[in-house]
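TL;DR need structure tokens for one chain.
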Amino acid sequence: MKKVTVGVIGAGNIGKLHINNLKRNKNVRIKMVSDLFADKLEKWFADSGVEEITKEYNDILNDEEIDTVFICSPTNTHATLIKEAASKGKNIFCEKPISFSDDETLEAYKTVEEAGVKFQVGFNRRFDKNFAEIRKRIGENKVGDVHIIKITSRDPNPPNLDYIETSGGLFFDMTIHDFDMARYLAESEVVEVFAQGTNLVNPEIGKKGDIDTAIITLKFENGALGVIDNSREAVYGYDQRIEVFGNGGAIVADNETPTNLKYYHKNAVETDNPLHFFLERYNGSFISETEQFVESILNGNETKVVFNDGIMAQRIAQAAKESYESQRPVKVDNEIGG
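>> reply
TL;DR here they are.
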């Protein structure tokens, strides 16, 4: 079988994660990685499984052997890289979000459509075995009509302050995964958002123009309601829980823990804390999303997370930001044309 030949743009945490997962796929050849700090990655590169390393991302785009690009660079580079890669006929996997601008994202979308290349957004949580099973059971009418979706998503530690400045803010950087999951589970578009937020973890985050704690309520086109709560610091671990409630029942996905043991003694019943970092908690979903993307290229199937999913999650994030700033509900534009 023909192999997918990959170039990875960006060798930070997420880029390295994808490289580690891709090199286990017998249908993938990782030819090149580009990173602005390539000269500081020599030790990592030696054991990376990547054939070449460069500072220049154009080396990847201009390489005729490379047919697929993984964009793992900062968000403010995504739209430009998507357009350039599509114009070179490369299939594209892009980490979320596509951009911070609706116009930029739609322009990138148009370029990808015209090029006819495969495209997938990195909403890996759709591929989590528990969340995917919830979606399956919703489709089987196990909860009847969905009435309420509750999503808890809390990081174990806040990111460094330099990252906060370029992240796009909590709604674009963190909650965007939850916005996508809400759409995915509701099988309906979000039509209105109301967001409240504050700084309870670190006042320095507020000085950088962001929040670290938020509650967002959603209204869906099908009449269902959603609630998302976020925090940048859960001292007990990476807190990731979902509940879907309907007129036929409810389904709950609880936290993943190192073991499922419970220790009973006279003072308490003890269990393990949740897994501590997203690389541990969601690594299985990262593997599944890349496997599916490679399969779609090799077999000509449609990718599972398409451009429209990226655009809509981004628009919900923008509406949440506007709602937080204005302290009022904000409507979400669900027309792909603008």
